[in-house]
Amino acid sequence: MKIINFESPTGPRVGAMDGEAVVDFLALNEAAPFLPANLRPALHDTISLIRDWDALQPMLEKAIAGSRTGGAGRLQRSAVKLLAPMLPTSILCSGSNYLSHNQEKANADVSGKEPEFFIKTADCVVGPGQPIVLDRVLTSKLDGEVELAVVIGKSGRHIPADKALDHVFGYSIVNDVTARDRQVRRRPDGSYWYELGRGKFFDSSAPMGPCITTCDEIPDPQAVMVRSWVNGDLRQISSTSQMIWTVAQLVHFFSVNVTLRPGMVIITGTPSGTAWSCDAELGGKWAGTDGMVRATGYLKDGDKIVCEIEGIGRLENPVVENKR
Description:
The protein is of the alpha+beta class. The chain contains 7 helices and 21 strands.
């Protein structure tokens, strides 16, 4: 199932994409109640839905199938404005998790040896079609990174890697928007160090969407294609099979630090093709493959960046400069 949030006259609603239609869970249940009273509150937000998913899933699947013959609760996809499919309680981020990306950039001391750990929050999240803000007070080197996002469905601490996927609800796309001139700093000896806080955490630095695809539809998260485009030019293309640490290993890794809970998201790194790879001043080294178009600069006002992951869809966002 592809879980979404969308605008309605009464505020954000939770639903699902079903072919060319959008199913409004609340409207579906109001028209022909199919949920017991104790489960109805779970339809009001995605995190509540995730917490009660085991009980909800069979009833929702049956109701969606029944709605295809007509009736309340179905809308045309073209008439719906999507929002971010959830506002995560936290976004646990793994950097330098594709060999090809490591080859194109200045590396930190731990690159390729352990996941680079940084955090974003719901304050960074915007939805499909919403602007990525280019704030030149913060950065003149704004970059995008397509990443597979892992949505946690069941709580756990010190989760073994061989049990980790049992704790996953589904997968989405996050564009890990980065201020490269804040992230990458150069020492007098020519070596580099990272400041991941200011380089990664800022308004609109985590576009998310268009949906959360439940894990039953992506049985192997290490076998999906990942792509991004800027203004129609293919910038990134790879497979999640090229990750250094698998989804299961990352779930284990982060669960050593904190109890993972429903509503948390893990993002899993990006492949080569970023604008950083073309910036020699920051240690970039182009490592593109056939078909990829080398960036000529960083994101600018009026650009459109598209992130695509097989089995999930496309996340499109314009870049808009905040002119002061």
